[in-house]
Every structure is written in structure tokens, then in C-alpha cells.
Amino acid sequence: MTSQDTMTTREQSLRAKVRELCADWDYEPRCDAWGGEADPAFSRELGRRGLLALTWPKDLGGAAESNLSRLAVTEELLRAGAPVSYHWAGERQIGPTLISHGSRALQDEFCPRLARAEISFALGMSEPDAGSDLAAVRTTATRTDEGWVVNGRKVWTSGAHFADYLYVLARTSKGEDRHAGLSEFVVDTSAPGVHVQPIIGMDGGHHFNEVVFDEVHVPDRWLIGSEGHGWQQVISQLAFERGGPERFLSMYPLLGAVLDTGVLDDTDRAALRGLTAQLTVLRSLARNIAADLDAGRSPVAQAATSKYLGNRLELAMLDFVRPLLSRCDGRIRALFDAAVIASPKSGLRGGAAPVMLSIVTKEMQ
Amino acid sequence: MSTTILTDEAAQLAATVADVVTTWALPVAGGLVSEAEHFHDQWKVAEELGWTTILEDVDCTSFEALAESADLIDAAAAVTRALAHAGAALPVRQTLVARALASEPIATGPIVVSAHSFGVWDPIATAFVGADGTTEDRAAQGSVDRDVAARPLHRTEPPEDLGDRPDGVLAQFLLVQEIAGAARGAIEQARAYVSSRVQFGRPLIKLPAVAQELGRLTIAQRQLDEAIAEFARRLHTAAPDRIRFAAIVARALACDVASDVATQAHQLHGALGLTADATLRQRTLLLWADRDEGLHQRSWGVDTLPNREVDLWTLSEPEHTHRL
């Protein structure tokens, strides 16, 4: 029996569809593709072929399939280093958040368009004084007769310069419990008072942004879920955000390319042993997390474990490839350079390693 | 073989083992574990409860046959893991494998070893099962060496490999289970210590650095447990290449976790963990001993690793069967 035999037919079919599209699409495989340059046309083609929003209800543009099916698609996309950043955040967690907490009208307004990758979302969570500590959010949303007025500042907002909408976590009331009084909103990036300013990365590239909200009016229908319940709602997103394969496959295109060069000797292959072990376990953990999500659970601690181990694997991949570069061609050296530059943010996005450890530690106690 | 073992789920069996051994006296520091005061009594209990004969009806000449015995293998794993968790030092794992390898039944009672024991417990074994399944009686050997865990040892020639055959894979499966059990026991002991030991006016676990180190070890344990769970799932499939790959994966992680947990559990436990009275060593010394068992070449397992990306991707794909 081969691996192919063990795969469910549906997952096998989805994987084949992704491979077919990637083989036909004109792009250069890259590491950290989900955080890189956007290719709206590629994302829309994925949507057209039914490869986005698989888990969403059919009447919201989805296919009512499992998170295991979605995992098959996302794994293959990351493996191929495909240009997925345009739809990534929206498909991964905005759609599921709207489906879990949003009103039916809100779902109807955004989900079908997200499923077709007609619109793009960016995540407005972090602030200058609220990085991993999201409860420290200071951006405010104040109720008005027409809806809400948002004021404040978000930072490290990936893709806000091309996103059509922002997901924003804001404080709607103040009290002693800093986890209370937070609410989630959809904000139009073209609305008056939204100012997106680039934060140029260490590679000179434009990925992150600072977003300033200056008296930004938001219609009441764009409040996601219940006022004041943003903390509970955002926590439920974290398993989506941290538990996916992008936390350990971002550097995989580099490893795959090196392996296919055939330059590895026995010493190199002994070093490969540990990497393959970590990779295998992380793929297994990702599958468990997807199964937990399908069962209606929110595996936050498991997702934190996966993210912590995933970042370690990604860094280990770089260490593995580094001594092999003299035997590799320019294409792989360019992949490596880009991966090295991307490596610090791979550990920070979604929460730094110490935060992941603290989640596991808290669960342990 | 006891009916209880045949019918109980593996987890229940592990709980039973834990209940039985919880009152056992553990070997004193410095002596050979086989010369501990209660060694033979404890071995007799293990025999009487059927722990050593769980696999005697298992056919390990093919992966298909192993797959048919997956429940028994799970039971053997549960016993092996529970004994290591409790710090009990008995040749149960080695005897389980040797009895599975034997082509003819072996009477209960003796300590039985095979090439998969890599010389551990050899000096006190009274039967040896060869690679062809034949059993030969042995006289106790005169001079007795010992390994790091103070188990009697006959130093053997380095093996060429860990054994790609089904019996070799079975031996690896029980070995990683033993490592996982000892690792969990060591982590639990370290956690209990830092939770009760007051320094700087509060329990040590209240220090963020201590708590995070425990969190890190817990993650390492989960990583190993998942590798073993995948190994177990693949044993059900009878797919040789994927099973051998899972064996390498589990062993590689077991090596890393064994060193990591043994070292850091002692660091967390402080000097009190180094005394003869401390029982942490029952787990940590076993971890260090098991870590290197049968590994004499730096390149172990590399022939099983993929040469191409597509093969790496295929081999690392998890089984889609039930979760363990």
C-alpha cells in the first residue's frame, strides 16, 4: 500500500488540482509565499476552480467540506511556493470568523466575494503597545447614531496597502477587566480617515503597514458578533491563525529544491534525518488540528505547539541548507537569501515563541 | 497470556501496570539493577501478569502479519511505556521482542533476548532467539558489564543497521515507547519538584524561566508522542517503506527528546535530583541508555530517507486512519 492509497479520494483530488494549477501558472516559487507579493489573478483562479473557502457553507460561496480538505489545498500551495498572499488572511480566518460570529447580513455581504477572491482583507490586531498582548489594544470604537467611529493606530498590518478591507479589533468600553470591552469590526480601507503608511522591511520590501484611523465611520452592520465579546471571538481565531501548515512550510520550497539537486552526501543526509522527523510530526499535528476544528473544538494550545515547533523547523531548514550553498546554483542561493531575510518575521507573526510557550505552560498548570 | 491483557484497551493496561508497580522498591543507586533486592520478585510478577508474553503469538516475519497484530503490539507498547514511566527496571521490552521473534513458544519464566537487545540484559538471559527465530538456551555469563542505566550488558559488535525487517521495526517501536514513558516520568517528577520547592519566597514554578522550560519540555514530549502515534498508525497499514520511514522519524525524535528531557529535568530538579535517594535517575539514566542503543554509526537510517522532494512529501504525509 502506498501513501496515495491511504489518502482519501477527495483530498487526493484536491491536491492534484492544486498541483495542476501551479504547474500551469507562470510564477517563481518562493519561500514565505503567503506573506509575499500578492497575485490577485492566481487567487481568483483558485476561487474559480473551487479551491478556496472549502469549509464554508455552500450558500456563502463555500463547499461545505472539512478542514482536512482545506489542509490538503493549503499544504500543496505552500509546498509549491505559490503566490497566495492576496487571499490568505481573508480565506483563513476572516471568513471563518464572520461565519462563526457575524450576522447573516454581514456574511452575505463579504463571504461570497472572499470565496471568489474578489476582495482582500488585512488583519488589524497589533498596535504599538499591543503586540502579542492583544488585550492592551487602545484603538477605540465609539457608538454614534449611524454606527461607530474608530480612532487609533494599528501596526504590522500585512498587506493593508492592497487590501480592500481591514479586520479591526477595537475597544468599545473600558473597565477593570482588560479582556472585556473589546469588539471586532470590518473597516473599508478606502473610507475617509483611514491612512495606510508603509513599514519598509529589512529587505527593502513593502509587506507591513501602519494604519491610522482618524474619525473613521463604520456602519453598525459591520460590527462582527456581539459588542464587547471581541476577546472571546478573537481567541477562537487563533487556532486558525497559528495551527495551519504555513507555520512550518514557509521555507519548504527551499528544502525541496535543494533535495532535488542531488548534492547531498551521507553526512548531509544524516542531518536531513532530524528535519524530516520534525516535518513529519508537524504535518501530523496539522492534521490533528484540522480534525479538531472539524469536530467543533478550538485547539488553541495545540496550535501554539505547532507554531512553536514550526518556527524551529523553518530555522533548522536554513541551517541545513547553508553549508550546501556552494554546491547549489544561483536559483537556490536566491531562494535561500530571501528565506533568511523572511525568517525573523516567520517567528513573530501570530505571536512570538515565548508567547506560544506561555500558552502551553498555562495549559500545563 | 492473561485474559486481562488480551481484552483490555492499551490505556487501561498501562493504568494497571502503573497500579502494580507504584509500590515497588526501585533499585538502589550504584548497583546492577539485576542484582537489586526485589528484581527477581518483580520479574516474577511481570511474568505472572502476562506482560512478557503479550507478543508470543505475533508473527513478525512480515509487515502484513504485524498489521494483523496491531492490538497486541499496542498492548505491549502500553506495558513498556508504563514500566519506563514508573522507573521500573526489568527486561520486559527485550523479552517481548525476543518472544515475538521466536518461531516456537518459549516456556514462561526465563529472561529472553535477541539481537535487537544489542547486548542489554544478555548476561543474565537464559535464552537467546536468533534472527531465524530459533531459540538457544544460555548459561549465565561470568563477567558482567553494565550500561549507563546499570543494566547488565554484553558488549556486542556494532550492528550494520537497526533492522529493516519487521522484527527490527517492532523492536524500534517498543524502544521509542520506552523512551517516551521515561521522558514523561522525568518531566512529571521535575514538575512536581518545582511546584513544591520554595525558593526566593515562592515555588520555583512561579519563576517564568522555570515555567517556560517545563512548557518547552512538554512540547518536546508532545512531538515525540505524535511521532510514535504516527508510527503506530502506519503499523496498521503494512506498507513497508512508510513504516520504516516512521521508525526513523520516531527514533530520531526520541534521541533528541531523551537527551533534552534527561538533561533539563536534572537542571530543574537541582542538586537534590543527583542524590542516591532521588528517583529521577530511574528515568534519566534509562533515557541516556536507550538514546544510543544500537546506534553506532552517524549515518544510521539514511538509506531510508528520501532522495527527492516528491518522496519526502509522500513519506511525510500522515496516515488518514483514526487518531491514537
Strand order of the largest sheet of chain A: 1-4-5-8
Residue share in helices of chain A? 40-55%
Shape annotation of chain B: globular
CATH topology of the largest domain in chain A: Butyryl-CoA Dehydrogenase, subunit A, domain 3
| CA gyration radius of chain B, whole angstroms | 19 Å
CATH architectural group of the largest domain in chain A: Up-down Bundle
Q: What average pLDDT do the residues of chain B reach? A: 91
How is the main sheet of chain B built?
Answer: 3 strands, mixed
> SSE order of chain B in H/E notation?
HHHHHHEEEEEHEEHHHH
Say how many strands of chain B there are: 7
Biggest protein-protein contact in the assembly: A-B, 46 and 48 residues
Overall structural class of chain A, as computed from helix and strand content, comes to alpha+beta
Oligomer state equals heterodimer
C-alpha termini separation of chain A: 43 Å
**CATH level-4 homologous superfamily of the largest domain in chain A:** Butyryl-CoA Dehydrogenase, subunit A, domain 3
Total number of beta strands of chain A: 8
Helix proportion range of chain B: 40-55%
Your description of this structure?
The complex is a heterodimer of chains A (365) and B (324). By secondary structure, chain A is of the alpha+beta class. Chain A folds into 3 domains: 8-119, Orthogonal Bundle (Butyryl-Coa Dehydrogenase, subunit A, domain 1), CATH 1.10.540.10; 122-231, Butyryl-CoA Dehydrogenase, subunit A, domain 2, CATH 2.40.110; 243-364, Up-down Bundle (Butyryl-CoA Dehydrogenase, subunit A, domain 3). Chain A contains 12 helices and 8 strands. Chain A has helices at 3-6, 9-24, 40-48, 67-79, 85-101, 104-115, 230-242, 252-261, 266-294, 300-321, 330-348, 353-364; strands spanning 121-124, 140-143, 147-154, 165-171, 182-188, 194-200, 206-219, 223-224. In chain A, the strands form 2 sheets. Chain A has a 4-stranded mixed sheet, covered by helices on one side. A 4-stranded antiparallel sheet of chain A has the order 2-3-7-6, with no helix packed on it. In chain A, β6 (194-200) and β7 (206-219) form a beta hairpin. In chain A, α5 (85-101) packs antiparallel against α6 (104-115). The N and C termini of chain A lie far apart (43 Å). Chain B is mostly helical and 324 residues long. Chain B has 2 domains: 3-153, no CATH class; 166-315, Butyryl-CoA Dehydrogenase, subunit A, domain 3, CATH 1.20.140.10. Chain B has a 3-stranded mixed sheet with strand order 1-2-3, with helices on one face. A two-stranded antiparallel ribbon of chain B has the order 4-5. In chain B, strands 6-7 form a two-stranded antiparallel sheet. In chain B, β2 (127-129) and β3 form a beta hairpin. In chain B, α2 runs parallel beside α5, α6 packs antiparallel against α7 (166-196) and α7 (166-196) runs antiparallel to α10. Chain B is globular and about 60 Å long. Chain B starts with a helix and ends in a 9-residue tail after the last helix. At the A-B interface, α1, α8, α9, α10 and α12 of A face α8, α9 and α11 of B.
